[in-house]
Structures are given as structure tokens and as C-alpha cells.
Amino acid sequence: MADTETLILETTKGRVVIGLRPDLAPNHVERLKTLAGQGFYDGVPFHRVIDGFMAQTGDPTGTGSGGSDLPDLKAEFNDEPHVRGTCSMARTNFPHSANSQFFLCFGDARFLDKQYTVWGKVTEGMDVVDSLNKGEPPRSPDKIVKATVGTA
Predict the structure, then answer these.
(1) CA 91 distance to own-chain centroid
(2) Are 132 and 55 a contacting pair, CB within 8 Å?
(3) For 77-91, what is the mean pLDDT?
(4) Is the pLDDT of residue 18 over 90?
(5) 142, 46 in Cβ contact below 8 A?
(6) Is pLDDT at 152 greater than 80 in this prediction?
(7) In the predicted structure, residue 2 carries a pLDDT above the cut 50
(8) Quick one: average pLDDT of 58-85?
(9) How far apart are CA 101 and CA 55, in angstroms?
């Protein structure tokens, strides 16, 4: 049986394995699984990578303003802290606007706690996340080559 609680990102810098947390954010985890299964994230750049803060992806336009054709999600804010390796959904100023974009925290970002939906944690490949090209946007952005749900 395949492990359906793991999201694997094969990036231009290497492999990142994320443990999904449906106990924290069931609808967000389901959305990520759906989009990964559709190949939505394949070829999508890390369009905003701020050293010491986070790496953001999930927008096929690479501008930070795009998303999927699916409706936005209702926020599932939780008590999980935004610390190194935390995976959380990006959104606009409207709390119920998360769609397909997400970010991986490089370090402590506790000021985001209970304002963004945490849905997972990097369990392998944090060194890969650390090595992503920095910038807003990076001059030469790294990409998700393939995103899959399954066994690490």
C-alpha cells in the first residue's frame, strides 16, 4: 500500500519529502494531493525565496498571483508553529483565499502562527530547500520538476 500522507517534490536542486498533516488541515492536504495527482505542480517555479524566511511555490504563472481552477479554500488555521521545515499555505490578505500556493519555512516565522494554514513538515531534503536560488523572484528560479503523493 502506498503512503498517501507524503508529498514528494523532485526539484531542480534535489528531492524534498514532506509529511502531510491531515489531522491539522484535512481540506488543504486533500487539495495538495489532488493537484499533485493532476500534475499541476510539475514544472512550477519557486517564485519567491527569501533567505532566512521561506520559499514559496505553487503558482504556474511564476508571478505569485496565479492558482488552480479549483475554488479557494476556507482557512484551517491551527496551533502548529511556523518553524524550520514547516509547510504552510500562501494566501492573499483574505483569510479564506488559499488555493494552490504554499511555502516552506527556512527558520522561525512564528509571527505567521494561527494566520496561515500549516499542512505539513519537511522530513527529508531540508538541505535542498536551503539551496534554492534566492530572490523575489530569483533571477534563475528553481522548479518543482515533479510532485507526487506516495512513499518516501
Answers:
(1) 12
(2) yes
(3) 98
(4) yes
(5) yes
(6) no
(7) no
(8) 97
(9) 11
Side by side, which strands form the sheet with 118-124? 48-50, 54-57, 102-105, 86-89, 118-124, 14-20, 6-11, 144-149
Q: Are 118 and 83 in contact (CB under 8 A)?
A: no
Torsion sign over Cα 138, 108, 114, 28: positive
**Among residues of the chain, what percentage have pLDDT more than 70?**
96
At 114, which amino acid appears? K
Q: DSSP code of 142?
A: -
Locate the DSSP E strands across the chain: 6-11, 14-20, 48-50, 54-57, 86-89, 102-105, 118-124, 144-149
* pTM of this prediction exceeds 0.90: yes
User: What kind of fold does domain 3-149 have according to CATH?
Assistant: Cyclophilin (2.40.100)
From residue 91, alpha-carbon distances to 3, 33, 67, 104, 125 in Å are 28, 18, 10, 14, 25
Short-list 118, 122, 57, 52, CA closest to 82: 118
φ and ψ at 96, to 5 degrees? -100, 45
78 grid coordinates: 491551527
State CA 128 to chain mean position distance: 14
